[in-house]
Amino acid sequence: MRKLFFSIIVLLITAATVNAQAPHIEKSEAFDEPDNGYNKVLMMKNGNTLFFHFARKEGIEVNVFNKARKLTSTKEIDSELWDTRKMKNITVAGLYEINNEAVLFIVVSEDREPTLYRMRFNSTTGGRLGENELGSTGGKTRRFAALKEYNSIYVEKDPETDNYAVIFFNGYASDPDEKIKVIHFDGTHKRLNVATYDAPDDNFKYLRFIGAVVDGANRLFIATYGSSSWTGRDGKVFVSSLKAGEKKWVNKSLAFSEDFKDTKSVMSYNHNDNSLQLLTLSYTTGEVAFFTGRGRTKYMSFLSSIDPETLELKSVKPLGGQKINEYAHTVLNTDLDYHGLPQQMIINKDNSTTILCEEIRLRAVTTRTQHSTYTRYYTDLGGIGVSEINSDGTEKSGYWIRKQQEADGLYEPLYISSRGKGRWSYLQGFADHNSYLSYDYIYTDKNRYIIFNDDNANFDRDEDEKKRKTVRKVGKLNTFCYSLNGTGVNKSFLFGDPGDNDVSNSVHIDASDIDKATGTYCTIMVERDGKDRQAKMVWIKFE
Asked: What is the secondary structure of 423-489 as a DSSP string?
């Protein structure tokens, strides 16, 4: 009976795939495929699209495409304040449209002390309008890659307005009250407030910034994680608020977070019900049941709703992901349970929440030769999980989409959330081909879509995990598109069936941007025909 049910589901999915309406696709003229660096797209409200290319030695190039999708300007950008030829020292802290300009926030770590620079660009010509040094953390980053997050700078913009905040975090400061400094800016880059953070507990020597929300020009909220020892045995999560023009922070601990270990978070303002929404992901010393009723993991996660006026906890729900497993068992016909971790939180117009997940496994491979020993690090990016949460915190639906990719370097939990803000760093040592990996989620008023690059041979292997090929090389990949449809998915090639292995079309996932108002997704695509490869900007309007 189960096999019969599964066969019916497959037939329904196949029929829906045939009848699914293809998205509207526009392409630019071809250009040389960008390599040796980082690429990022920013769609502007005036209809132009800016394409930033960060090369390791050549610096920054800005290309402007107009409403007709024609390349109208290319600018080589230098700086009077920092050396653009030393791109390995930089972190892109954010790329936003602010006051009708493209604004790039760059952290430069000369002599291991992070300093933030703001660069403004004309949205028509791509030319640099101005640049400013905004400050530094006041401490030197240690040379251990795993500890770099203890000395960093973050930029958080209000999605509803042009106001933004800069957070300077020096985790090595001995005084807890000197670890965090914030600057609140309006859309004209005027400083509304400058304040240091009042540590909620002076006994918490180990304090870390884990999230922020900008509420227009009115106030800021930040989330922190603190403990009295590096083991985190008494760790807590705090939510704090600061009104514009004031210096005194209001702090509240999340009572249920006592004894949390290392914790990260995504924080957003839910304007639907006037609440702060906080997704926390905490490491545990033992294994807990999470995202399964049976499977085990070393992480646990909660979705919390907080009153922005009082900072009192309105509700908290553990994330279980049972619907993801139900989908796996009934549609994918597998007894396996899902083991992915939350990577992003999206608040929908109907006050529901979408939690995007991905299976992640970190690996170290050590090679020993006669004269030396060296270690390379990899991240296995596995299956995609999508969990739909009702406004009351109950899980409405779930999906599990199979994939298996191998990336160079180590990916942090919640990295998809950071990627969506344009945050990227050479210090992580990521390879160029990593920009093709992971996945993107596009949602419109009517539908939801998942896209990722995969081997053609995997197109019909969602139900056969053992035969799935791991993506290690990106030269011959095609972009798969899954439309989430009730209890199933509609699957297709985003750019049409390539027909044979000599033809492929793939996209740079890292480079993408989306205009939520129109449902238009923009990124760089690479078309391959045999040995010939060419890049194009592509704009995809999803229904």
From this structure: -EEGGG---GGGGG-S-EEEE-SS-EEEEEEE-GGGTT-TT-GGGPPPB---TT-EEEEEEEETTEE
| Sheet containing 180-185, strands listed edge to edge, beginning at the edge strand earlier in sequence | 151-157, 164-170, 180-185, 191-196
* Interatomic CA distance for residues 186 and 359, integer angstroms: 38
Identity of the amino acid at 407: A
User: For residue 189, which of 82, 107, 99 has the smallest C-alpha distance?
Assistant: 99
Rounded to whole angstroms, the Cα distance separating 411 from 438 reads 11
Q: Could you say which DSSP state residue 176 is in?
A: G
Q: At what angle do helices 322-330 and 2-19 cross, to 10 degrees?
A: 100
* In contact, 329 and 336? CB cutoff 8 Å: no
Entry pTM: 0.90
pLDDT digits (tens, 9 = 90+) for 50-75: 999 998 778 899 999 999 999 999 99
Compute the distance between CA of residue 509 and CA of residue 524 in angstroms, rounded to an integer: 8
Higher pLDDT, 205 or 18: 205
CA 284, 287, 293 angle in degrees (round to 5)? Answer: 120
* Cβ neighbours, 10 Å, residue 349: 8
Confirm if 537 and 514 have CB atoms less than 8 A apart.
Answer: no
| HSE-CB of 543 using CA atoms within 13 angstroms | 8
pLDDT in tens, 278-296: 999 988 755 444 333 334 4
Which residues are CB-neighbours of 504 under 8 A, at least 6 positions away?
456, 475, 476, 477, 478, 498, 527, 528
Angstrom distance (rounded) from CA 533 to CA 115: 38
CA distance linking residue 172 with residue 180, whole number of Å: 11
